[in-house]
């Protein structure tokens, strides 16, 4: 019974924290390109590390989850820089 009371108190505290925490981060615009995971910056061009591109930004393997604006997924399988 003591465990149930402790668990209930923890749940109430977590709920109160979630309500009291401001959501400023969600309101700010993202600086990540929405088509790539992990985050790639929104810049003029991103190229694969070790490739022949001229940057200005280079990345390793990424998942392409939208339009491939940077041309990292040459074979269209959803994985860039493989």
UniProtKB/TrEMBL annotation:
Residues 1-25 form the signal peptide. It comes from the Bacteria. This is Excalibur calcium-binding domain-containing protein. Keywords: Signal. The keyword Signal applies.
């Amino acid at each position: 019974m003591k465990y149930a009371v402790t668990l209930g108190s923890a749940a109430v505290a977590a709920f109160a924290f979630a309500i009291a925490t401001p959501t400023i981060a969600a309101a700010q615009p993202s600086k990540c390109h929405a088509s790539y995971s992990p985050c790639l910056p929104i810049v003029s061009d991103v190229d694969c590390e070790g490739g022949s591109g001229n940057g200005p930004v280079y990345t390793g393997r990424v998942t392409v989850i939208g339009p491939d604006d940077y041309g990292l997924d040459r074979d269209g399988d959803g994985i860039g820089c493989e």
